[in-house]
Amino acid sequence: MSRLFSSRPGDDGLPGPERRLAVLALILGTLMAVVDTTMINIALPSIARDLEVSAARAVWVTNLFQIVCAAFLLVCASFSEMVSRRRLYVGGLALFVLASLGAALSRSLELLLVFRALQGLGAAATLSIGPSLYRSIFPTRLLGSALGLSALVVAGGYAAGPALGGLMLSVVSWPWLFALHLPLGLCALWLAWRALPRETTRRGGFDGRGALGSVIMLGSFFLAMDTLGHDAPLLQSLAWLLLSFVTGYLFLRRQRRASHPLLPPRLFLEPRFRLAVSASGFAFVGQGLAFVALSFLYQQEMGFSPLHTAWLFTPWPLAIMLVGPVAGRLADRANPSVMASAGLVLLMLGLASLALLPAEAGLADSLWRTALCGIGFGLFQPPNNREIMTSAPRELSTSASGVMSTTRTVGQSLGVALVGVFLAVGSPVQMTLWVGCLACVLSLAASLARMSLAGIAQRYQQSASAGTRSNRSGKSVQ
């Protein structure tokens, strides 16, 4: 860990001591946003009972947060170029903390949903620019290690959220789950204002029409995925999907003409970036699908209790926490595409082994298969994220960060919706895990194509340098 905060002559990024405070601000901000989702899920029955609403309506306490956060990721990433990432991050944290206080004091579902939407907007502001801030804070030689640390924080948040929520609900009521963000948020606010790098802002306008199109496109997509995953009328889901596709087409047309586009077209001219984003999207489809499918597999097919099911999930994030930082460090020294591809192979084997898991299998037989998935994903994510961030021009880091966050959220949401669709038509839950394997195959194909491109580029450079030496020797002979 001390290596992350060491400085060398000629390093870009922040000096070592300032780096520590800035990273702590990012860690606290990320933890609050990640823990919030899984922690509040545990409290939904309590919220429904205390506010005297149905469980179906209480689910919107989680859904609205996720939809607003996902819909505003690209908008916030672009807006940060006008106000600076430091100000946007601090503003997003402040909004999240104030909305958490409002949620803790809410005594009606309608008021709670308003503050949950504001929390989602604040989370979008911080999560959309987090990876680009890591690139600004750390020198390039340590970027893989830094992103490995980020993967550890996210996995730790997902692992700790349910346990923390259950522990707190055993002694206090659900409003205290929201109040927990206040001390952490105030500490993160002070650190972010003091330590995050100051930077010049972009001169020029903001693509308001593009922002509106992005919000409608992503918001309607997530509403479509939510309705598909909850067995809503098919026509309703198709209507939301149609709105998403039409708005998406208009949004992309707008981006080609806008002077300051939210999604700069030249960002996708780099093949490494396109392929790394594609690999990330398909991998998160597999992970999002597996997280929901395994809940049904363990409880309905194998007869485990909800508590046992929670323990059976634990090896996945724990493995990411252990493997992710190591994979990040290795990605700074070795070919990240090779490591990411190896991780995808392990993830695919883990999902296949879970799909083949017999109904009479015991805890131990289930645990190693889940751990294998976590090891594979931990080996894949930090190197692939490093590829996304380093293949984008530095001046487009914030846009690349927004794309990376949006791809992750879209992939997970699509995976969850696919489970709902397959279960709605009566398919066995094991079938959804095989679909997850297929998503990993597509992700692996994108990753291997990236390796092929790297090999072609290397051979081209070698032949070009050989030709240059040949010309020089010919001239010297003459």
TrEMBL record:
GO molecular function terms noted in the UniProt entry: transmembrane transporter activity
Compartments where found: Membrane
Cellular component annotations (GO), alphabetically ordered: membrane
Pfam families: MFS_1 (PF07690)
Keyword Iron-sulfur among record annotations: no
Segments crossing the lipid bilayer: 21-44, 56-76, 88-105, 111-130, 142-161, 173-196, 208-228, 234-252, 273-298, 310-331, 338-359, 431-449
Gene3D superfamilies noted in UniProt: MFS general substrate transporter like domains (1.20.1250.20), Multidrug resistance protein D (1.20.1720.10)
Membrane topology: Multi-pass membrane protein
Name under which the protein is recorded: MFS transporter
Naturally occurring in which organism (per UniProt): Billgrantia pellis
